[in-house]
Amino acid sequence: MGSSSSSYAPKTIYLDVDGKVQKVVFSRHCSPCDIKELLCNSSNIPRTTAIMMVDPEGALVSMDPTMPTNSPNSLYKIVPLSTGQLGEKEDMFQNVLSQMAEQFSRAFRINELKTEVTNRLAMLEKRVELEGLKVVEIEKCKNDLKKLRDEMASRGGARVNCPCKYNFDDGKKVTPRRDVPNYPKYTLSQETVEALKKPTFDVWHWEHNEMLSCLEYMYHDLGLVKEFNMNPITLKRWLLAIQENYRNNPFHNFRHCFCVSQMMYGMINLCNLQEKLTLTDMGILMTAAVCHDLDHPGYNNTYQINARTELAVRYNDISPLENHHCAVAFQILSLPECNIFANVDPEAFKQIRQAIITLILATDMARHGEILDSFKQKVDIFDFTNEEHVTCLKMVMIKCCDISNEVRPTEVAEPWVDCLLEEYFMQSDREKSEGLPVAPFMDRDKVTKPTAQIGFIKFVLIPMFETVMKLFPQIEEIMVQPLRDSRDHYEELKQIDDAMTEAQKKKTESISLGGKKK
C-alpha cells in the first residue's frame, strides 16, 4: 500500500521569482504542457511565452514530470525566451541536424564504397583463380602431349613430327632482350685477332660468350657496323637472339654457327675480298653464315620429307630445313630491337634479304652438283663486275665454309666427325623405329669414321675447294693441302681397320675349323 500511494504523491519544486522563493506543487501525472502553464502562472509570465527552466549553475532542467526536485536553497529559475533567441536555437538545431545528416551520408557512401571495393576484389580473385586454373590446364596439356609423343616414339612404326623450337602457328616471335645485353666484353688479344683470320683457328677453346664477342669483333673489323649504320647495342641483341635460336644438337649447334662464320671471315681475309667485293656483299656473306642453320632440329631434309613433318609439308618438300632457317632469321630481324639493318634503305634491304636467302638455300647439299657445275663454267672467265658471277661465288663460298671442318688441323676437325656421326646415329635410330628408309652412311651398324670421311673428302670437298683455288690460288697451301692430308689420314685408318677386320675374320674361321676337326 505504501509503495502504491507513494507513486501518486505530488512533486514539489522551488522557483526563484523576482528574488522570492515560490513553491510549486504538481501531480506526477501532469503533462509537459500543464507543467509549463503552471510554471508560467507561478512566475507571472504569460502562457504563450516561450520559457526555459535552469538550475543555479545555468544548466537546463526538463519541464516534465521526470524533472529532478530541488530545495529552497537551490532554486530553479524560469527564463522567458525572445524571438531572436528562439531563432538562434532553431538555427543551431538545424545546423546540428545538417551536420548529422552529412555525417550519415558520408557513412553510407563509405559503406557503399566498401561494398563496391569488396565486390571488385572478389571478381579479381575469381579471375585470378580462373587464370591460374587455365595455366595449370595448359601445363597439364603440354605434359600430356609430351608423354604421348614419347609413347608414340617408343612404339615401332609410330611417326612423330620433327618438332620445331620456333613455332610460327602460335603467333609468337622469339623473345628478344630489351635490356642492354650484358655478356662480358672480352678484349681480344692481338694473337687472337690474327688467329681469327686463319682456317687453323681452334673453335673448341671458346665459351659461348667469347664466341659472341668474336663475332661482334668481326662485324666491326670488316666495317659492316659503319657501312650499315648499325646500333652496336642492336648488334649485341641480334647476336644473343641468334645464339638462343640454335639448339643443343650434337653437331648443328651454335658452335657450328661460329665455326662457319669464322671460316667465312678467314676466307674474306685470305682471299683479300675487301678489294674485290662491296661491303654489302661481305655483310651478306657474314650474316648468311651466322644464320645458315638457325633452329636446326637435328634431323636432315631426307628425314623431314620421308616422315612428312610439318616443315616438309610447309615447304612442299623443297629444302624444308634451309627455308626454315631463312624464315627464323628474318623473324628475328623483324624485331626492331634486333634489326641490324634498321637504318638501311627499304629498297636496299629487299636486295640484302633476297641475297641472304639465296645463300642459305644454297647450303642444301641436294643442290651441290648444280651449284658447283655453275661455278665451274664461270671460274675461268670470272668477272667481279658481273653480278651473276659474284652471286655464284658467294653461294660456293658459304658452301665451302659450311662443310670446311676438314680444312682445320686434325685435332680440331676430328671431334666434329664424332659429333656429326652422333647426330646421324640419332636420326637413323629414329628412322628404324618409325619404319623409314635409312641411309647407309648414317647407320651405326654399317659406317665407320674412315668410311664416312674418305668419300666425302675425295668427291665433295677436294673438287669444290680446288675449283675455288683456280680463282684464289693462295688457298692451296692453307685450305686445299689440309684436305688432301686428311684424305690420306683416313685412308690409312681404313687400311688399319680393314687389316684388323681381316685378321679377326681369319681368327674366327680358324677357330671354327678347329671345332669341326674335333
Q: How many DSSP E strands?
A: 5
Query: What is the radius of gyration computed over CA atoms, rounded to a whole number of angstroms?
Result: 49 Å
Report the span from N to C terminus.
Answer: 146 Å
Number of helices: 18
Contiguous low-pLDDT stretches (5 residues minimum) are: 1-7, 155-166, 168-173
Main sheet characteristics: 3 strands, antiparallel
Mean pLDDT: 84
Q: Assign a percent range to the helix content.
A: 55-70%
Order of helices and strands: HEEHEEEHHHHHHHHHHHHHHHH
| Strand content range | under 5%
| Shape assignment | elongated
Tell me the strand order in the biggest sheet: 4-3-5
Q: SS-based structural class?
A: mainly alpha
EC number: 3.1.4.-
InterPro entries: HD/PDEase_dom (IPR003607), PDEase (IPR023088), PDEase_catalytic_dom (IPR002073), PDEase_catalytic_dom_sf (IPR036971), PDEase_CS (IPR023174)
Family: Belongs to the cyclic nucleotide phosphodiesterase family. PDE9 subfamily.
Cofactor: a divalent metal cation
